[in-house]
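User: Before I run my own analysis I want an independent prediction to cross-check against. Here's the chain; please return only the structure tokens and, at the end, one sentence I can use as a sanity check.
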Amino acid sequence: MLQDLFFIALLIAASAFFSAAEISLAASRRLRLRQLADDGDPRADRVLRLQEQPGDYFTVVQIGQNAVAILGGIVGEAALSPTFSAFFENWLSPTTAQNLGFFGSFLLVTSLFILFADLVPKRLGMADPEPIAVRLMRPMALCMALLKPLVWFYSRGADALFRLMGLTSLRDERVTSDDVLAMMEAGARAGVLAAREQQVITNVFELDTRTVSSAMSQRERVAFFRRDDADAVIRLRIAAEPFSTYPVCEGDIDHVVGYVDAKDLFQRVLNNQPISLADDSLVRKVLIVPDRLTLSEVLEQFQQAHEDFAVIVNEYSLVVGVVTLNDVMSTVMGDLVSPFDEEQIVRRDQDSWLIDGITPIEDVCHALSLDELPHDSEYETLAGFLMVMLRRVPRRTDSVLWGGYKFEVLDVDSYRIDQVMVSRVVPTSAPLGDA
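Assistant: Structure tokens:
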């Protein structure tokens, strides 16, 4: 009986080996394995190749696990069933004792295999998969060589079944933006990645979905010069509205002919030279981009034109705003912007926000943790949302209830919504607008 118990222990160890080998290969992350391979471990490189074609590897695992399970059942029943039967015969009939002895031996052997040959090794393999997969690589390679005929037979049979069902056995190694974001979120929860760093990475991926209008300075906030502005007018405008770049227009803002850099203007002031925008050497060629471009496309335009300033126009060739490289970078960095920049979203307390009417709707949804707002294809700003929901130009004290929030207009200046108070209320199942 001791020999049988020792043999059962060996079978459990063999089954645990195959279980750990299986789960560690499946759970190993390619980035970690690549790091191990770059550090000079050839076994990690072989594990990487096996992940690309794991069919033979898992065939050996299944052959080993099934063979060990069958042997364990046979040996366990022969070794333990008589002992259990003899124990139960002290109180029960021989037939009943024999049945209970068989059930007891089956339950004990099965429990031992489940605990020590399945649960424990698989949990270890999930907890630290890459080192375990690397350590078990050579023993598994030996098993694959010894069982090569059986591996060939079963692998070809499995491949035939996959082709018959129109499936592929190749592992998809493509890494999507959703995969990266999920990894960043897991890293933030584990404390490996700071929450601010996670937010910056998330903002980078949003550059492909956010339009340039979400980061630009709106038309009514653009400070510009006319081509025929006098020296005194230019100096007063610079003092009143200090910016790094100013569009230069013929007549009005919709006829932009270029832009002037504030550094060039300051240089002339310091040299006591007159400022005249009729001088073509002072006015630079401006980059014009459509308002439907994404922020990622705008960055590409900046790179190609070697510029960091652009004028945004709509489909009617009317200027809707301007954008700078700093505006795009501020979108990426979130609240890591200059303290001199005016905040469009100010959180008053736990359940209320004061938001500028021209705030991009993407920023509003992000601040309020909303997935989306209704009819979001019809507007780009919070003011546009209120107009669409109310079906008219909002007035002071007008409000809209949506998604558990109340959007109340606080200030309107010449039909322009300046400030909106957003308060958290009891969630509602449907939108409600009231004046």
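Sanity check: The longest strand covers residues 405-413.
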